[in-house]
Design a protein that fits this description.
The chain is an alpha/beta fold and about 425 residues long. Helices cover about 35% and strands about 20% of the residues. Strands 1-2-4-3-5-12-6-11 form an eight-stranded mixed β-sheet. Strands 8-9-7-10 form a four-stranded antiparallel β-sheet. This is Amidohydrolase.
């Protein structure tokens, strides 16, 4: 096990140095595929496991092509890189025992964030020499750790294949940030045959050496890109001939934050980005906004999203400009299957490396697109849960100083492996 701990740390630190954002995880995916292939897994990659029309917020062809060239020059595995050249970077690795038994799926995510990592000398990745090598991008949410944990689990399963029953599917998902990647993999039917589905996360406020087997507290969400198109004009000479897109956007911002809250559950709305205009003496003919909505349930989120659309339409009418709303990410609400969570809970409770295991904690948090997988499995009669492995955090998620305690990795892998064994005994 000491050797596996070293591998987990090495994998995590390598991925941390080369963070790749959603649908651009080409270097990461090529290395993951190479390792899984060496372990004897059957691989499905790229468009085999992702529906093109269900990819939300995918980068442009130009950005995708440019990143492919970057990946070639920065350590990607040349044997597998071509499978991901168009930005469809998902992987499903299947280990078939050849014996009758359940189909168990584990999902881990691979993408990073557009955050400039701290260069403070006391920042552990900086101190130990594995900080991000890409300016403005970093693993600030633990997905480098998740990918390493997925490979660690793959290693244990492959080494003990003779003891297994049924099949195990390891799903390496792109573009979790922005809730963009899961929907396309579900639409490609990758979990249609799954009896048990487990999604994982590290941290999220759970203390080191503690574990939560079921977290249903993630809010449904929609990520919206909104654009206004008006008419430019000289602000001093002919202001009446202009149609002010900036004014429409500004009016929208104030109104959006005034959306009535819903009596049946929590709601959120945030305008995170606003860009407009081209000069101080020009009536702004263009404006762009990036916003998100969240709701305690999918129906409540739909209510907030509907309010947003009404506000945008009204502001556009008021200022006589055109508008467009594009959904670039979405996540559902979903409840964990407690029978499955109980198995995870028992495995963590039996482990000497966990001081506390909690069956269920539904404290509202952010949003997660693993709910697409969960809902699909449950609709087919299967069970699904979202579990959280606690760790020490240097700073909160999505922070420039984010870092985990790497001693959390191996105990998490062991619990996931023990869970597979228990489910196969059923």
């Amino acid at each position: 096990m000491n050797n596996l701990q070293e591998k987990l740390v090495d994998w995590r630190r390598d991925f941390h140095q080369y963070p790749e954002t959603g649908f651009l995880e080409m270097r990461t995916a090529s290395i993951v595929a190479s390792i899984l292939d060496g372990l004897g897994y059957h691989l499905q990659m790229g468009k085999e496991v992702m529906s093109e029309q269900d990819c939300m917020g995918k980068p442009s062809e130009e950005e995708t092509s440019s990143h492919y060239e970057w990946a070639k020059e920065n350590g990607a595995n040349s044997e597998f890189l071509s499978h991901f050249s168009e930005g469809y970077t998902g992987i499903v690795a299947t280990l078939d025992s050849g014996k009758e038994g359940p189909v168990i799926a584990y999902r881990v995510d691979m993408d990073a964030l557009d955050i400039l990592e701290s260069d403070a000398l006391e920042h552990f990745p900086q101190k130990e020499g594995f900080a991000s090598k890409i300016t403005g991008k970093m693993h600030a949410c633990g997905h480098d750790s998740h990918t390493a944990m997925g490979l660690g689990l793959a290693t244990l399963l492959a080494e003990n294949k003779a003891e297994l029953k049924g099949k195990v599917k390891l799903i390496f998902q792109p573009a979790e940030e922005g809730t963009r990647g899961a929907k396309s993999m579900v639409a490609a039917n990758v979990v249609n045959d799954v009896d048990y589905f487990i999604a994982i996360h590290i941290g999220v406020g759970v203390p080191h050496k503690q574990f939560v087997a079921a977290n249903s507290g993630f809010l449904a969400t929609s990520k919206l890109d909104i654009s206004f198109r008006g008419t430019a004009s000289h602000a001093g000479g002919k202001p009446e001939e202009g149609r002010n897109a900036l004014s429409a956007a500004a009016t929208s911002v104030l109104s959006l934050h005034g959306i009535p809250r819903h009596s049946h559950g929590a709601t959120r709305v945030n305008v995170g980005q606003l860009e407009a205009g081209s000069g101080r003496n020009i009536i702004a003919d263009r404006a762009k906004m990036k916003i998100e909505t969240r709701g305690e349930t999918s129906s409540i989120n739909d209510y907030v999203k509907g309010q947003v659309e009404s506000i945008i339409s009204g502001a556009a009418t008021m200022y006589q400009v055109d508008y467009n709303i594009e959904t670039v990410g979405e996540g559902l609400s979903c409840k964990c299957s407690l029978d499955l969570a109980e198995v995870l809970h028992q495995c963590a409770t039996s482990s000497s490396e966990f001081e506390k295991s909690v069956l269920e904690d539904n404290t509202p948090a952010g949003s997660e697109d693993a709910t697409y997988f969960m809902e699909a499995v449950q609709k087919n009669g299967g069970q699904a849960t979202y579990c959280v492995f606690g760790t020490e955090l240097a700073a909160g998620h999505h922070n420039e100083r984010f870092d985990i305690n790497e001693e959390s990795l191996l105990p998490a892998v062991k619990v996931l492996y023990d869970t597979a064994q228990k489910l196969m005994e059923k």
